[in-house]
Each structure stands twice: as C-alpha cells, then as structure tokens.
Amino acid sequence: MLKQYLLTALRSFRRNKVSALINVAGLVIGICASVVIFLIVRYDFGFDKFEPGVDRLYRVVTDMRMNGESYPNGGVPGVLPDAIRTDLTGVETVTTFYEHDATVLPAKAARPFKGQTDIVFADAHYFPMFGYRWLAGDPHQDLKAPGQVILTESRARVYFPGLTPEQVLGKTIVYDDTVHTAVTGVVADLTQNTDLHYKEFISYPTLTGQLKNIWSHEWNSVYGTQRCFVRLSPGMTKVQVDKGLARIRARYADDTSSVYSLQPMNDLHFNATYYPLGARTANKAALFGLLAAGLFLLLLACINYINLTTAQAGQRAKEIGIRKTMGSTRWQLVRRFLGETLVLTLLATVIGAALTPTLLKIFADFTPEGIVFHPFAAPGVLAFLAALTVVVSLMAGFYPAWVLAGLKPIAVLKNQMGATKSRKAWLRKTLTVFQFVIAQVFVLGTLLVSKQVYYALHKDLGYRKDAIVFVNLPWNVYAAADHRNHTLLNKVNTLPGVEYASLGGMPPASDNYNAMGITYKEGPQEIKIQPEFREGDTNYIRVYGLRLLAGQNLPSSDTPREYLINQTLARTLGFRDPHQALGHHVLDGEDHSHLIVGVVSDFYQTSLRSPIKPLMIHGGDNNSYTLHLSLQKGADWTKTIAGIKAAYKTLYPDDDFDYTFFDKSIAAMYTTEQNTARLLAWATGLSIVISCLGLLGLVLFTTRQRTKEIGVRKVLGASVARIVALLSSDFLKLVALAFVIAVPLSYWGIHVWLDNFADRTTISWWVFAAGGGIILLMALFTLSFQTIRAAKANPVKSLRSE
C-alpha cells in the first residue's frame, strides 16, 4: 500500500513539475526557518532548569527609588547577605559573591594569563546552593578561609595542563601580583545551559581581608557586581521574604529610598532590567515573536500548497471520478492524497534539515554560541522534525484531500463542476490575501524598526560621538594609587593628532551603572537621592563636548571636592534655573561636603530605552582607570593611535593595549534592535519569496486556463498591455486588500514595540507608502513573468490548444 502511494505521488509530481517545485520550495523555506527558530527557542528556554530546587532559588536585587522613578541594580550592599542570615526567617541558604577580572599567574607558569574573566570571590555557601559536581577536594571545607580558590575542570586544564584534578590540589595561583591562593578543590563544568558561567572561585574572606574599608558597613552604596542569592524554605513565598527585606532596610539603613526584592532564578536569563549574570539575556517577547514568525512562514507554505492543489483539481477530476466509480471511498482517497502530501513534505524536511547548518552560519552573528544542529545526536531535534513533517502534511494536505475526494463522480464525468470551482476560487482569494497580509506586516515592521535604529544612532544624544577613543588602563583593586596613568596622560597630551585627553572613569554613555548616595540640606528640607555619577578631570567634558549651562568646569585638583551636575539632578534638588544650583553643597555617603560648581546639559547615559536620569560628574582620583581621547579631524589617526600605544607600552610593558571608538560602543547598545531588524528583514524576504512563489503558481494556472480567451481577445484586437492588465488586475486587487488590512495591524504592533523606548521615532506615513510600494512592485514583477508571455503568445496556437 505504501509503495503504491509513493508511486502515485511520484507520477503526480512528474505530471505537475512546476507546482511540485513551487510547493517544495515554499515548504523548504518554512521548515528550514522553523528548525532554526526551534533551536534558538529551545536553547534559551532551557536555562537553569537543572538547579536543585530551582523554584525556590532567587537573586536579591536593588531598586533605588527617587522622585517616583525606579533605578534597578542587580547588585546589593556588601553588608546585606549577613543581615539576611541573622535577621530574616524563611530563608534556607544565603550566598554572596563578587565578580572580578584579573591577571592570573599559576605556579610555575611561563607567563601570566591577562584579563581573565569568569572569576568570583564566593563565600562558603555558594557550592551547597548550586548544582556542581566535585572532582577533587573537600566540599565541606571549601571557601571558608582566606587564600583558597576552587577551579572548574576546564580552567584547571588551562592553568595546569596534564595534571589530574587531585594533582592540582595545593597548587599556588597569584591574582594581580597581590593575592596568593592555594587550590583547594576542582569541580566539573556545568554542561547544561546556565548563566552561572564562572570558572574560578576565590574564597570571600580573601576579598574582605584586602578591602575592609569598602566592604565593611556601607549600606547606601550598591555594587553592581556584588551578587546575593537565597534559597527559600519550603512553604515560604516571595511576598513574605520581600516584606522581611523591607524591614531589614528600615532597621539598618538611614536612607530608605532603596528597595530590596527577590528575582526568580528562572527569570535571570530573560530579564535585562537588572545586571545580567551571563553574556546575554533573552527576551521572551522576542522569542514568542520568533515562534510566530516561524508559524507564519509555515502557514504561507501550506497556503501555497492548498491554493495550487485546489486550483488543479480539474486536472485530477477524471482520475477521482474513475476511482470512485471503481469503489474507492472518500476516506481512501483522502489517505491517498495525504500520502502524496506526506511524501512531498518529507522531501522538503530532508532538504530543509540539510540547509539548516548553512542558515545557522548566516545567523551566527546574533544566535547564541551554544546552538548546534545534530538531529541524530539530539532526540528532541529529531522528534521535532518528525512532528513538523506530520503537522505540516496535515495542515497543507487535509483540506485539498478532502475537497478532491469529495468530488461527485457523475458531475466530474459530465464536467459539471462550476459551483465547486467558484467556492474554491473564493477560498484561494482569501488565502492569497492572508499571505500578502503577513508579507506586508513583515515589510512594514522591518522598515519601522530600522527607522528607530537609525534614529537612535543619529540623534543628538547630548555629547560628541565621533573621533573619540577610550583606553581602559590596567587597574588593580588591591593596589595603592598608581601614578603611571597620570604619566601616560601627560605623554599622550603631547602627541600630534590628540585634541584633548582626559583621565577618568567610564564614558558618558555606558551599559554599566554607577550610583552614589548624596544628601542635600536646605534649611529644614533634606533630600536624599542616589544619582548616577561619572569620574573625569577638567578635560572630560571637553573630550565629549558636554555643554556647560551654568558655572564653571571642574578645577584641576589632587583632592577634588567639586561636582558638576546635570539639568535633571538640578531640577530634582529643586532648582528651576541651572544658575540657582551654583554654590550649594551636597554630602556624600561619608558626610564629606562637595560644592556644585557647574551644571551641564542633559545627555543620555545609556540607550534611548531609558530616560535621562539625575547625574553628577566629579574629579577622578589617582586610581582613575580610563583614558579618554578626542582626535583632531583631518589628522592621521593611525599614526596617532600608534603613538598612544607606544606611550602605553613604555609604562605597562606586560599589559595588552586595547582601545574602543566611542561611536562603536554607542552602536553596540542597540545590538538587540539591529538584530531584530536583521531577523525581520530575513523573515520579510522569506515571506515575500513564498508569497510570490504562490502567486506565480496561481498565475501559471490562470493563464493556462484562459489560453483560448487570450487568443480570442488578441484576434479581436486587444493589445499586449490590455491583456496583461486584464490578467493582473484580479491579483493586484488582492494585494491592495492585503495592504489595507496590514496597515492597522502593523501600526499597532510597532506602537507596542516603541513603548520600550523613552525616546522614539515617529511612525511616518511614508513608511506605509514605501512598504505598500515594495509589495506591489514584487507582485508586479512576479506577475509579469507569465502574463506578458501569455499576452505575446501566437493566438493561432492558443485557439488550437485543447
């Protein structure tokens, strides 16, 4: 029986080669895109599912509140974890760790490992909380004393190649030429998808022993890299613990503008509001959008199959009539036609699976590194392919099979199928409109998302972006003041091609977040807030072209006590006019008084997704670790940067020189939006291709059906243009109707998406006109292939055709 179905299917494909190729091409595109989307979604939704008791695991985060706005931070004060242990009931385990990058020198290594990442200072509760497997060492004695370090198996192989985990125990590792540790344990790497990407775990007492002044008793300072996780006791709820955290804040902190709360472990990978642990976060809305895009592409391919199969029903009518007169039942015919669809879909699935690795390479820039396609090594992928084949076969094949099998044998043999053809024509028109609605929505979405990205990259953000580079200098968290950075600054200032040079902290706009608690007192009034801050010397605002609205620039001083503030902070402190803020003092967290000497114009501290926040700029100290340079326009920047590198290497011969152009760092903030635009562009292209393939198939069928009509019209004097217009008009009406339906859908969708931005572009009318024009041109281009050819055909041959 199966062999008979296969042979019948192959004969049918051979008789209808063009429609079979169109159907296979559409299904290949839809299936290939669906497999890639399945791999992405499966990867992201698989994060941190393996942790023991994951439903009770939470990260403690901080929301700093002022003037009705919340400023989220994924870190906590260093003193909070101990307070949770002693003062909060309902918490089973608490762990804290501090993220750090370092230069690492293992024992007897020929050279240090510079800029090593994935290092944390972790307390003794870290490993009991998370699901690591021990390969060597005593889990009960880990990370309790200063000078201990635990390595993952992969990092142990890097530092001590050829040694077993047991042989690594006791080996010495020195961090940043200052901290000496001994390896007390080796754990297996986490092979499952996780945001816990750390490879080296230094005992937390090592950190507190080195930095007692910072990590002692400060409640009003929040460190973004200071993490705290808790496991709740069975039966406890997030709401109960959040209330307990509020009581801790009220008891110990004199500033109650901050709120501590719990973030579920299964939310870490999808929530970019707080500092993420991993290199990337996924967006659930975007993932569901990908799923919708994959489903739409499959629907488009299925619609092509339905349209072409039902349109060609007349060509198989006599076969159906004969089979039914010979005793075939309707369900037998349905199974036969579904078998044909299954064969065609299986062929498309095989081709799509073969093309998937190539498509993954094309999308490599914005797909997670962990995504690979091994259908036979991953049962889930193979099961998805099998399910996809069956579902697509049913979606595409059931209705045509039901229609074909339902034809009346007497009507078929007498050519009395007019009513049936009419009903199928209306269905084909409806499905064609649906196809072009999807394609039109994709086109308009691509144009509007690209417009927002362009707007963000070209808007005046309040600072200069072009011809600026910044260099991160070596920085040792344990060392005393390093005056080499000032020496480098003086050398760089003498180089040709350097306009201004400044020593400070991070640039005006950054994905990082630094905040400081300050207090402003004016008579009985007292305002406590935690504005963001930037560090920079006198040239900082000159390098970045920040506009001074009132007062003066920061003076040159080794002990800076002056602040510049932005307009938003001035308004927050109650000053309507920037000049009114000058001469007033604010207190920092240690009650040191600072003078407001100037007010700068507002600028965006991060992407346009976030509003402008209160900010202050204060003078950098001897540990300022970033060199900011504005380059002279017209100068040879290659030589200038080479000179900077030479000066750098004379002072830091053992460190790598690395620099970043500021405009590129700004563009990197919109990577998500740029990737969204690229994915939409791909989805748009694929949907247009599938829709146009279906349109081409229908045009081929229509012109074939109207061959004699075209010949008669030509004999009676109709021009080629007239015939082309006649053949194209019905299809173009469908495209126009699709445009009318797609416009409000696109407007609503992009309006929702733009709500994620504090500053956004306008939804211009010309975008809709351009989107409609693109679809119209593509439809005309597709139609012209066959309509012009049919209109130019010799009418004598047309009238002779049967």
Automatic annotation (TrEMBL):
Pfam families documented for this protein: FtsX (PF02687), MacB_PCD (PF12704)
InterPro entries listed in its UniProt record: ABC3_permease_C, MacB_PCD, Macrolide_Exporter_MacB
TM spans (from-to): 20-41, 285-306, 337-360, 380-405, 426-449, 679-702, 723-743, 763-783
Cell membrane listed as a keyword: yes
Boundaries of every ABC3 transporter permease C-terminal domain copy: 293-408, 685-795
Annotated signal sequence range: none
Domain MacB-like periplasmic core stretches: 21-244
Keywords in alphabetical order: Cell membrane, Membrane, Transmembrane, Transmembrane helix
Subcellular location(s) per record: Cell membrane
Sample GO molecular function, one term: transmembrane transporter activity
Membrane topology recorded in Swiss-Prot or TrEMBL: Multi-pass membrane protein
GO CC terms in record: plasma membrane
Identification of the protein by name: Putative permease
The organism's taxonomic lineage, starting at the top: Bacteria, Pseudomonadati, Bacteroidota, Chitinophagia, Chitinophagales
